[in-house]
Amino acid sequence: MSNFRFKALEIAQSRQAMAVAAPTERVADFFGSYTFNNEVMRTLLSPEAYIKVTEAIQTNGQIDRNIADEVAGAMKSWATSKGATHYTHWFQPLTGETAEKHDAFFDITIDGKAIEKFKGSALVQQEPDASSFPNGGLRNTFEARGYTGWDPSSPAFLMDNGAGGKTLCIPSVFISYTGEALDYKTPLLKALNALDKAATAVCQYFDRNITKVTPTLGPEQEYFVVDRALFYARPDLVLAGRTVFGHAPARGQQLEDHYFGSIPPRINAFMVDFEFESMKLGMPVRTRHNEVAPGQFEVAPTFEEVNLAIDHNALLMDLMEKIAEKHNLKVLFHEKPFAGINGSGKHNNWSMGTNTGVNLLAPSTKPKESLRFLTFLVNVVKAVHDNADLLRASIASAGNEYRLGANEAPPAIVSVFLGESLTQALNDLETKSEVTVNKGDNVYYKLGLNRIPSLMRDNTDRNRTSPFAFTGNKFEFRAVGSSANSASTMTVLNAIVADQLNKFKTDLDERLAKGEKKELAIVDILKAYYSNTKRILFEGNGYSDEWVEEAARRGLSNIKSSPEALGVYVQPESLALFERTGVLSHAEVESRYEIELEKYIKNVQIESRVMGDLAMNHVVSTALKYQNKLAETARNLVELGMVAEAEPIKDILREISTRVLVIKKGVEAMIESRKKANNTTDTAERAKLYATEVKDHFEIIRYEVDKLEEIVDDEDWPLIKYRELLFVK
User: Fold this and answer.
1) What is the mean pLDDT of each run of 10 residues along the chain (729 residues)?
2) Strand locations in 268-417 (E)
3) Are residues 441 and 525 in the same domain?
4) Which terminus of the chain is less hemmed in, N or C, by CB atoms within 10 Å?
5) d(CA 613, CA 607)
6) What is the CATH number of the domain that holds 676?
């Protein structure tokens, strides 16, 4: 039992669920208690300042510096009263992680007195060093200046440092000295603003009272949880975020018993703990459950405005990792941490709401409302159809490349599911010019069980194999990876819908200028849009090989490689769209393309190095030691005259030698292909080589290693096995 693996197992098996106490009896009593929210502002700000701040948030207006000084003073008083000693501009650079630089409220006056100080200038703007953050060639290394700017639409919050102190975190944008966006939030805010303007203009044809449209989002977060000791006993999990080796356990997810099953005690305690902390931070998490794979779980929030929802998701991921440490657990957000079982996604449930309380994607039986619903529905479908490759680019990553199309996630083919009722409604629109939408309000199941109340049926079924599915009053984009910052996808989605709505308005205005009746003109335009885009609609099994063939016949793209997908960003039509909508400049798009390619290269490079190290220094060396033991046993049998009995052992010896040779040659070939890629100066070509020539060796090496795991004595095998990792209790 000297094997490090068994020591880790002993530690993991000795752990018990931690007790977690609620802050108060009712969630409503502590929800948002760590946020500088609307209620706190109303209490601490003067009426004039409060009105100006809320108006600026609602209209995307600027806040005067004198008002900022008052807000800063109120923030400082509120934060320090709750134990905060520092403040930071909390932002989301293009690393994929959140970033923060803490400054103390504490300061020294000229005469040496200690004071607490926080001015409006510090609230509005800070200057983190921008040289060490990805910029894609926008700045030289020696050009270090960059700025963070306060985003008042996302409430400031307190983060517990875990050592008795708290930090006031101020959600912020991050730009370079020359004004280019260096973060996820800045272009997202621009895309949301573009959609607001475009959608509001279209709404005006139906209701003059609609003056603002707010996109909403509910990102469902999937993740795996493993014991902390077992995590650190797997170097590949520590360094690459996923297991590069591991033979499938006898029992994985084939019994289909984990999904929605009883949550293991240690995991439940962890969930309860991070949910309490989330509620303090104003994050409305409300759903928890086991996912399909063993060791896999999901948390889902209530819908919020997109910008806030994305801030909350990034904060939630940070919080989950911190809380997991308290429970001696590790959270895995990688899209495919384990082979042979489901990977993890981040299902983005997206819709649009008006200032009058209308969900623009909610069906209605009233003719005018029905026409408005179909207007937005068809325009969204057309936006996705016309920009499917760009939407595919927004979800491209090294991790998601393993997951897409792997029997638990949508394929790399972008398609749209509307359901039988809506598809029929659109077919009627196309062929008969009739607008009829069945809400499903009065459709019930008759179960024949008197004790069971009637169950109402939705107007569509759910298609979990569709990457972009209509689910009753929203679209669910299921193809986003679990580790991703959804801002990239939401920037693209909101930008393409805004662009399409602008085109629709232009088309409609041209017809109205000719004297056509508004309703007839709208129906005629929608008919043409639907006819030209219905090939993207698919109601069947998106996981099937038949769909891949059918999609090819329809002319739909199937971009499997991340470098190829990312290349869509810099195509002329993509650059033009971002420029038209004011979301990203050409330079900003090109820099992001460069950053994403570099990120892809580095992730695959790290995985390759980890694989080579584990294969040669852990697996092969262990296999050879075990082979020596078997060889000695075989010799002893032969010396005893038991030649026939020694033959099965000799067969195992030959198999080990053969597999070790394949591994050694595979690792050497992988290293050579990596050298070739590294010596390629063009980033796009280097990424392509990593996606093909380097990654081509992964499965070859893995197959042989996993076969050796079946052969080598369990007492000698150095790596924590899947059966030990996946079943935390």
Assistant:
1) 78 91 88 95 93 86 86 94 94 93 79 72 84 79 80 94 86 92 96 98 97 97 97 96 95 85 94 96 94 95 96 97 96 96 95 97 86 96 98 96 73 90 88 66 48 55 80 94 97 98 98 95 95 94 88 94 96 98 97 97 98 97 96 95 94 97 98 98 97 96 98 95 93
2) 285-290, 296-301, 304-305, 329-332, 346-354, 416-417
3) yes
4) N
5) 10
6) 1.20.120.1560
